[in-house]
Each structure stands twice: as C-alpha cells, then as structure tokens.
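Entry type: protein chain
Record version: 2
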Amino acid sequence: METQGSSADSSMDYLITSSNPEHPANHICTLCRNFYTLGWVTGTGGGVSIRDGAHIFIAPSGVQKELMQPGNMFVMEYATKTYLRKPPVLKPSACTPLFLAAFDRGAGSCIHTHSQWAVLVTLLVEKDAVTQGKAVLDACFEIEQIEQIKGIPKGRGKDGMLGYYDRLTVPIIENTAHEEDLTQSLEAAMERYPDTYAVLVRRHGVYVWGDNVQKAKTQAESLDYIFRLAVEMRRLDLAWVQ
C-alpha cells in the first residue's frame, strides 16, 4: 500500500473535514468512543473502517480509541489501494488488509473488536471440540432459538434477516502473532461460509462487516449480545443448539 505525496501534506485534509456527524471521519471517532465504553477496544486494540464511494477511511494504530479525532484518520483510494491521506507520526492500522478483504466482498464498513465475550466463545468452542474428539480447526460457533439472531442478515444477496428458528453459524480462525497474517485465513473463512457477516479469531476477538456502517454496527452489537448470552448459558449448562 503506497502513500501519495508527503505524509505531512495538509492538502488532503479536506477529505476528513466536515461538520456532518455522519461523515466517515467523524462517525469513526463516535464509534470508537462508544466501543471503548463497551470494552471492545481497550488499550488501543480493535479498529473501525468505512468505505465512502471511492475512499476508505480507517482509524489508525496506537491511538486511544476514546480520544480519536478526525485528523487521525487514514484515507485510502480503494481502486488503487493507495493512501491519499496519511497523518504524520501515526501508523496505519494492522487490520487494514483484513478490512480490505471485507470491502472486496461488497462491505461498506468493517469493525474489529477485542470483546471478551467473543474471546470466551472461541475458547468454549475449542474446549467442546477437544472433548468431543473433533477437529478444532473445523469448529464454528453455532446457536439457535435466540431472539437476537434476528439482528443478523441471511447472507449477501439474500433478502431478510435470520429467524428465531434459524441457526447462526460464525466461523473461527486461529490467531497469529501479527494481525496482518490473519488475512489469508479470514479470506478462506469468507469463501467457505459465504453467508457469514463475521469471523471470530480464537483468543483474540471478532471481525464484523455490513453493507454500510449502520448495519455493521447493528450486527456487531447483536453478535456481542449473543456471545455474552452463550457464555452465560454455558455457566448454567444450557445448550446452544437443540
């Protein structure tokens, strides 16, 4: 991914300057603050990206999410994968190639969180697979007959949302030492489960995407509710699937 011009060049600041709260540069800051209060992006972890026409707006690496400002945003030209705006000092998000994988499949926004509930669910699925003598790498998180499943779409190109009696399946990939090294596994999970709008990363978190930022946010919230419920159900020895 190349950078066009000097990283300190302010001539591209018009890309992130707007009084509209829905402008991607402003909206990402709002989401980061909200996600921080939920414990999703603690310690600068996680990330948010939005595609707006020809441009992709990406929160940087290493900035406290609750203090994020529009001036911190990286802006990439989607067609060329070239940075049009690259703030001085700051580093691009290590999540960027994974965000691009979602955008290449038609997403309008991709969110990455380090939700504790997402992490715990991956560990419970791993434990179940080992106990049952099944391959851990093939195990997914599955749950059904939970009302909040209705917050998840049936799949790209399909009308409507999942229903109460539908089974929600979220694939799980193995973590790596470096975030960008997850890209190939994420893309493979997207191909194997074309209807999914999320991929869990074992002992790490979750990537969630949607047709636009509003849908991505709604789906991230719905999934986190479901993950937390699943953990609590397990404490009570309640089954996720019938």
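Comment: Strands lie at 47-52, 55-58, 74-77, 82-85, 109-113, 141-144, 167-170, 172-173, 198-201, 205-210.
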